[in-house]
Amino acid sequence: MEEQKQEQLRTKEKYRQLSEKILMVSRNELYLSMRFLDSALGSLSYEMNQNTFFMGTDGSTICYNPRFLMERYGQQPVLVNRAYLHMILHAMFRHIWNREGREEEYWNTACDIAVEAIIDEMDSKAVKRVVSDKREELYKEIKKWYPVLTAESIYQYLTTSTMTWKEFSGISTEFLVDDHSFWQSDNDKGEGENKEQSEQQSKQQSKDFEQQSDNQNQEAQAKQKQWQKITEQMKTNMETFFKQAGEEAGGLLKALKIETRVKQDFRTFLKKFAVIQEEMQVDMDSFDYGFYHFGMEMYGNMPLIEELEYKETAKIEEFVIAIDTSGSCSGAVVEGFVRETFSILKDTENFFQKVCIYVIQCDKEVQEAVCITSQEELEEYLQHFEVKGHGGTDFRPVFTYVNQLQAEGKLKKLKGLLYFTDGCGEYPKKKMPYDTVFVFPERDYMEQNVPAWAMSLILSEDQILRAKEKINEY
């Protein structure tokens, strides 16, 4: 009995050594073919796990089934290379941790499609293989709606598509490469069970469970920061030291640029256009109740300090919202963007009592320009808002019109201009005397030639969905 047990241990150790040798060979092939993967390839350790169907990672360890790994490598070594790179890309784009609020089946498949699309475009011998017609057709179909194949955009496509569950299952099988069960933390796996048990356990045990959860969250955040740093470093390397290799890597560099761009909440960004000005209102921050009460006690009805009747506030006074209404911009998205913007602006905390907000709709020429001076006019405008235009795209007429308004004295304290567009048009060459931001929906975002003097902001798919929901509020 003891000898049999020792033999099993020796066999297990032999499988472990052979499997990890295969993984190291795969890692070396990827490194020799794509040296910019250096730091990413060195960030994952190996662990044998016979419960998985092939391989999977939690962002720090590659868990593999030795039998299936050796079989796959014996059949076609490039499949192991692709799976290795597949898992690295999941970690780089933080698919493992961005699952909250998403349907698991659709999110898993969307992530697989996103990274496989990148690998399929690579012109590297280590991962090159013939792309199936089924994959080509799916990529083409999704790009009709989302030019950039990110996990988020593909997820939106899958969840809004009219495909049947059988069709979706076929797609999932086509792109199935690794085991996503390792993406779940211990909290995810036993959340319901732990919740039920915690009600029956003592307070001390509950505290221990909470502490364990906090530790796991901290570990997850540390992993994300590590991979974020790796991603940013890889993007820099591909743009500089490995520029030629970056060009051969197909859509990887483009995906890295999207992943590493600065993400900012639209509401927070819009507040950057606020201006500081004194406004007639009680400044409770300068009011001292102690002195006030002392004066009333000592002198009857004579407070020693009165509150100030004016206050410096950061609010929007003059603003221009330009909307690209060309045929390439979706009417629903445009309308949703306008309503989301106005829902932020109409907040009394962001409005002066007197405002001047111009809303300009333009395709290749200005189609409509409306000046809004109060919340009442804003409400009225929203009630009857409709998109006008749908011609070609030229950004210059809007700036010409705004410059004319300034020359006529209709805009004296213009802080900024917000231009919502898909980016396909002619930009002005000259810098404007006010801040300008071009806002792109992520689904239409490519590498736009935004002038150096202007800023750009990409609305995520989540922000676009929230914007569309505003349509139903009016």
What's the arrangement of secondary structure elements?
Blueprint: H1 2-33, H2 38-41, E1 45-48, E2 55-57, E3 61-64, H3 66-75, H4 77-92, H5 104-121, H6 133-143, H7 151-160, H8 165-175, H9 186-189, H10 191-200, H11 203-239, H12 243-248, H13 252-260, H14 266-270, E4 275-280, H15 289-299, E5 310-324, H16 331-345, E6 351-362, E7 366-372, H17 375-383, H18 396-407, E8 416-420, E9 435-441, E10 455-459, H19 461-469
Describe the model:
The chain is of the alpha/beta class. The protein is built from 19 helices and ten strands. It has helices at 2-33, 38-41, 66-75, 77-92, 104-121, 133-143, 151-160, 165-175, 186-189, 191-200, 203-239, 243-248, 252-260, 266-270, 289-299, 331-345, 375-383, 396-407, 461-469; strands at residues 45-48, 55-57, 61-64, 275-280, 310-324, 351-362, 366-372, 416-420, 435-441, 455-459. The longest helix is centred in the middle third of the chain and has 37 residues, at 203-239. The protein starts with a helix and ends in a 5-residue tail after the last helix.
Gist of the model:
The protein has 474 residues and is α/β, with parallel strands linked by helices. It has helices at 2-33, 38-41, 66-75, 77-92, 104-121, 133-143, 151-160, 165-175, 186-189, 191-200, 203-239, 243-248, 252-260, 266-270, 289-299, 331-345, 375-383, 396-407, 461-469, and strands at 45-48, 55-57, 61-64, 275-280, 310-324, 351-362, 366-372, 416-420, 435-441, 455-459.
